[in-house]
Amino acid sequence: MLLFALFFALPLLGMALNNGLGRTPQMGWNSWNHFHCGINEQLIMETIDAVHSSGLHDAGYEYVNLDDCWQSARFPNKTIMPDPKAFPHGLMPLISHAHSLNIKFGVYSDAGSKTCAGRPLSLVVFV
């Protein structure tokens, strides 16, 4: 039975789509791992530049992910407001800069009511 399974399964192990997907895991940098809530516009801009210039992007690091503590409150329309002290120009300049270097930019949220740091999350918008 084992020989039968190996005979038919081994040829399938080498089969995969050749479309460029899944060749590496999703790779990127995340602000929480080192900085927790100690983030700001300048730090994230410098990180985007470092991912690009250090060769990490060429090695497959596609993402710069902004984790908890970027948000402070809600706008009147209930969307989440970036912390005006840490991100005085909002997030769009960071996102635009990342995209100009062909780096994808991720922004953390969750379906809860508060983040681990007590900041607002998405649940209130959907309830």
> What is the chain-wise order of helices and strands?
HEHHEEEHEH
Low-confidence segments, given as residue ranges, are none
Rounded to the nearest angstrom, the radius of gyration is: 20 Å
- The count of strands amounts to 5
| Physical arrangement of strands within the biggest beta sheet | 1-2-5
Q: Fraction of residues in helices? A: 25-40%
Shape: globular
| Distance, first to last CA | 55 Å
Structural class: alpha/beta
What is the average of the pLDDT values?
86
Name the descriptors.
two-stranded antiparallel sheet, alpha/beta, 127 residues, three-stranded parallel beta sheet
What's the layout of helices and strands?
Elements: H1 2-13, E1 27-30, H2 32-35, H3 41-53, E2 61-66, E3 71-74, E4 80-82, H4 92-100, E5 104-107, H5 123-126
Parallel strand pairs: 1-2, 2-5
Antiparallel strand pairs: 3-4
Describe the fold and architecture:
The chain has 127 residues and is α/β, with parallel strands linked by helices. Helix content is 33%, strand content 17%. It contains 5 helices and 5 strands; from the N terminus they run H-E-H-H-E-E-E-H-E-H. The strands form 2 sheets. Strands 1-2-5 form a 3-stranded parallel β-sheet. Strands 3-4 form a two-stranded antiparallel sheet. The longest helix is centred in the middle third of the chain and has 13 residues, at 41-53. The radius of gyration is 20 Å and the shape is globular.
